[in-house]
Task: structure prediction
Amino acid sequence: MASNLLKRKTKIKSAINRYTFLSLFHFLIRENIFISLCSVFFFLSGYIIIGSGIPALKYQSLIFWATLLIYQVNTRIKFNFFDLDSYALLKPTFNKRSQVLIFLGTVLAFHALLIDFKTLLFLIHLGIISTLYNVPESTRKKIYLPLRSIPFLKIFLIAYVWASISSFLPAIMENEPFLLKKIMVVFTAHFSFIFAITLPFDIRDFQADKDSLLKTTPGLIGILPTKIFALISYLSFAMLSYYEVNPLALILFSIVVIGLIIGSSPERKGYYYTFFMDGTIILYFFLVYFSHNNL
Result:
């Protein structure tokens, strides 16, 4: 009797722990905390290659909070800075999402006081580009900029912003010129990598984009050619990164990424993309870190 009671308590405790873990996991993905951590790891990857050691914590913190704000604005809050109607979010009643927006803005304003003007200016331009994709929303029969109607624009904007965070930003911090060969190689490599792992997200959204008449790569050339396109982009990244990382580790990393790209489809939903595909960014950090520390 006592043994059965003990087993039942153990099962209940195990179920509670599992539920708590899954709830936390869902929260980190849903509220864009995981992707914000990915941006920090990607920034660190570029800094290790270009700079010397690990940058100050204030820069890592700034990247995290800035990414979180951008993703909250574009995916959760749906706030359009170019639409006056969106500012209704900031009325005194303060709903939950507007509180999040104000909190994140306050945190970023505090960080802005801690970094140099040149770095801040560069980050502001990336922030503007990141929010521009949220502009083409029509409200009250007004259309601001038809950015969504331009084929491939979204993926190029994403790739440019992420590649800049992990190449040009470290270069600014290290007082290196943008046109330095190493900087441009890192930018091109990282652009190709982000481009490759972002195309599968368009495959995921293939049907929804088709229904909303949004022109994306899969919609224009098909799903299989899009996968081939992504693989070519990834191979470009691998070739450009060959001398910066351990070759054997790069091969293992490539097997994972290529497998995820090949396995992408409109039927796969959820964490296949937002955890595993995005998670390759963190995996890449460890590839760079251990390669540069001869571990």
